[in-house]
Amino acid sequence: MKAGDWAKALSAVEEAVAVMPDDLHFRMLHADLLLHKLRGLQSGLPALRQFVRDAIDKKSELWMEGALRQLFSSANDNSHFPPAERLGMGKDVVRTARPL
Predict the structure, then answer these.
(1) Which UniProt keywords apply (predicted)?
(2) CA distance 22 to 31
(3) How far from 30 is each of 9, 72, 89, CA to CA, in Å?
(4) Taking Cα atoms as reference points, which of 16, 17, 22 lies closest to residue 54?
């Protein structure tokens, strides 16, 4: 990752996720690489949707925080990310975190 070789980093992170699918760090890196480094919506959106679903299923504040960070952090350039998609996933996370 330090070298900026995003394809190589993605390959390593995908191997780690396959072995340790419940590791929050690797799951966040996976979403970040796909959506924000490689800017691949076709593969990034399904990965992020799954990450959001898993965060909701786990009812884990850390996982939900990580999902919201991927969706809304100002450190990420989300200009290529459909706003309705981001907001919809964000609403799902927030509703779980704070039931209405």
Answers:
(1) Plasmid
(2) 14
(3) 9, 16, 17
(4) 22
